[in-house]
């Protein structure tokens, strides 16, 4: 009997098998054909192993970078990149991540069903990354086994429902309707950018779209290209500062230090490329199942979708936002060199995707000035939030990468600080209070509706 | 026939377009079409017969072959019209 139990535990503690089982449940629930079920389950299983493989490649490229940075500047340099940190974290937190993701999606559907927060968060890769971060934070906070999964899942469900809610007022201004929401865990940065836009609008703000702008930066959309190019610049600059003697003696076993830096930078991009392929395979079955189940259970659900859906509304603001956010990142990096401690290097990918969106929202509320200043503030946010997030991530805080988007920072710091002051109890109480407030708001609205109908 | 939805990172937006295309095909009763999604770097001309791209990355996908550009990624009516035109063009309905 105990042998059988051991096999069962071994199965459940292999995250690749676990996500495959989750996909299997989803496929069976949708009554798919046997061949499709087999295909989907296998792909999910392999996908998870692809992520692990990518993590190995990426870690190997990040390690020498950290060494070079320390040798050059005597402080730690960190490149925020969700894919990198998640892939590294999944080696230790994979099982908990998979379970938190699965039950967190359920909580998201329940909240949408029973409160006025009708958002179904469909950006699967962000759900996975947030589940991963919560698995780490809840572990560091002191949770274990079932309570860990429960706390993580409730927290994830709440974040999946609140993140779109924060941006929705600005989505309404932008799209002119209330049908579609934004599902991207940078909502705090976008809302702040929208508010900044409002504050600096003045009279008759001029829209960014009235500017004639050269095109030709579209290639930055291609994440492999932009990661590879920027990492090459960053790696080569750091290698130059570290000096040929140090690099060739300690890291590259004699290979020319510039060549070594270029290859490591390219390897970093290759690692991200592989991880993303794995993420795509893992999500391929889980997201449609989640969407199908939510459509059946939640009347008038609002889908919360990935951030590029808003780019076509203001293509110029996308470019202006990216530049302003990146400048905000460089500005923050300079400040950090004076204050000591870790240095957060501006990554092109987070600044591009979140800066662009911050620019679009800033433009919607405050024209060109709103786009520039709103995205600049977003750039500062995604530089400084990771600094405060790293201490609550336990051992993961010592990696040379971390989570990049604002909502990871805000929710991570929130739960991390609670845990530091009141342990697991404080987190449980906070989750109950947040849920109660969300329900309370919904009940009140129902009463108001009833009153209106009586009048 | 194979259709590929493409976006910058190949994660969220193209996935949503893929699911929506599948929904339209189901509505039309078209069965033998394989729909998938990918990022711009991985998409090659031989990976599908027809490519669906959002307007903002259209210039990056010009070399793919038969490209359908979506003005609004979230507009189901536009997608329905364009998918219907494609399957009619291929003689599937």
UniProtKB/TrEMBL annotation, chain A:
The answer on whether this UniProt entry bears the keyword Thylakoid reads no
Q: Where in the cell is it found?
A: Cell membrane
Please tell me whether the keyword Transcription regulation is annotated for this protein. Answer: no
- Return the GO cellular component terms, semicolon-separated: plasma membrane
Tell me the InterPro entries matching this sequence.
Ascorbate-PTS_EIIC, PTS_sugar-sp_permease
The UniProt entry's GO biological process terms, in alphabetical order, are: phosphoenolpyruvate-dependent sugar phosphotransferase system
Q: How does it sit in the membrane?
A: Multi-pass membrane protein
How does the record describe its quaternary structure?
Homodimer.
Protein name according to UniProt:
Ascorbate-specific PTS system EIIC component
State the species of origin. Answer: Listeria weihenstephanensis
Automatic annotation (TrEMBL), chain B:
Spell out the molecular function terms from Gene Ontology: protein-N(PI)-phosphohistidine-sugar phosphotransferase activity
Q: What InterPro entries does its record include? A: PTS_EIIB-like_sf, PTS_EIIB_2, PTS_EIIB_2/3
Q: Which Pfam families match?
A: PTS_IIB
The record's listing under SUPFAM superfamilies reads:
PTS system IIB component-like
Record's keyword terms, sorted: Sugar transport, Transferase, Transport
Q: Which CDD domains match?
A: PTS_IIB_ascorbate (cd05563)
Which residue spans adopt a coiled-coil conformation according to this UniProt entry?
none
A single GO BP term for this record reads: phosphoenolpyruvate-dependent sugar phosphotransferase system
The chain positions of domain PTS EIIB type-2 read: 1-91
Superkingdom in the source lineage: Bacteria
Q: What is this protein called?
A: PTS lactose transporter subunit IIB
Lineage, uppermost ranks = Bacteria, Bacillati, Bacillota, Bacilli, Bacillales
């Amino acid at each position: 009997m105990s042998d059988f139990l051991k096999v069962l535990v071994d199965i459940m503690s292999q995250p690749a098998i676990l996500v495959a089982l989750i996909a299997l449940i989803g496929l069976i629930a949708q009554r798919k054909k046997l061949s499709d079920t087999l295909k989907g389950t296998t792909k999910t299983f392999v996908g998870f192993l692809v992520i692990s493989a990518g993590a190995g490649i990426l870690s190997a490229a990040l390690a020498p970078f950290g060494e070079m940075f320390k040798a050059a500047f005597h402080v730690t340099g960190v490149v925020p990149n969700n894919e990198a940190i998640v892939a590294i974290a999944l080696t230790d937190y994979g099982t908990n991540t998979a379970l938190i993701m699965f039950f967190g999606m359920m909580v998201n559907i329940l909240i949408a069903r029973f409160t006025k927060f009708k958002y179904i968060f469909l950006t699967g890769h962000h759900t996975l990354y947030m589940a991963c971060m919560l698995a780490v934070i809840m572990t560091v906070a002191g949770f274990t086994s079932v309570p860990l999964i429960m706390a993580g899942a409730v927290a994830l469900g709440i974040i999946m429902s609140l993140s779109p809610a924060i941006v929705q007022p600005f989505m309404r201004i932008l799209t002119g309707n209330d049908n579609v929401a934004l599902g991207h865990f940078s909502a705090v940065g976008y809302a702040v950018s929208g508010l900044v836009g409002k504050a600096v609008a003045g009279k008759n703000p001029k829209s960014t779209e009235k500017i004639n702008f050269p095109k030709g930066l579209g290639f930055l959309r291609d994440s492999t290209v932009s990661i590879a190019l920027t990492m090459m610049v960053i790696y080569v600059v750091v290698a130059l500062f570290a000096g040929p003697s140090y690099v060739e003696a300690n890291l590259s076993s004699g290979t020319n230090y510039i060549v070594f830096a270029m290859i490591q930078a390219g390897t970093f991009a290759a690692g991200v490329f592989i991880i993303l392929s794995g993420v795509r395979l893992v999500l391929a079955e889980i997201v449609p199942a989640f969407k199908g189940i939510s459509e059946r259970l939640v009347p008038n659900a609002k889908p919360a979708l990935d951030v590029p859906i808003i780019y076509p509304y203001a293509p110029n603001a996308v470019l202006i936002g990216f530049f302003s956010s990146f400048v905000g990142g460089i500005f923050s990096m300079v400040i950090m060199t004076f204050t000591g401690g870790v240095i957060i290097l501006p990554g092109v990918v987070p600044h591009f995707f979140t800066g662009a969106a911050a620019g679009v929202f800033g433009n919607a509320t405050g024209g060109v000035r709103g786009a520039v200043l709103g995205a600049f503030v977003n750039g500062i946010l995604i530089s400084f939030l990771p600094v405060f997030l790293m201490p609550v991530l336990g051992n993961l805080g010592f990696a040379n990468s971390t989570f990049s988007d604002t909502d990871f920072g805000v929710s991570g710091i929130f739960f991390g600080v609670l845990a530091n002051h009141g342990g697991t109890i404080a987190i449980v109480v906070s989750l109950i209070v947040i849920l109660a407030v969300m329900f309370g708001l919904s009940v009140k609205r129902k009463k108001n509706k009833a009153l209106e109908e009586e009048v | 026939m194979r259709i590929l939805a493409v976006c910058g990172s190949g994660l969220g937006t193209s996935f949503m377009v893929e699911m929506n295309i599948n929904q339209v095909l189901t509505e039309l009763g078209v069965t033998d079409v394989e729909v998938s999604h990918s990022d711009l770097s991985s998409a090659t001309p031989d990976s599908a017969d027809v490519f669906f791209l959002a307007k903002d990355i259209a210039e990056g996908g010009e070399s793919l072959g038969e490209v359908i550009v979506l003005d609004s990624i979230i507009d189901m009516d536009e997608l329905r019209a364009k998918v219907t035109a494609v399957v009619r063009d291929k003689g599937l309905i």
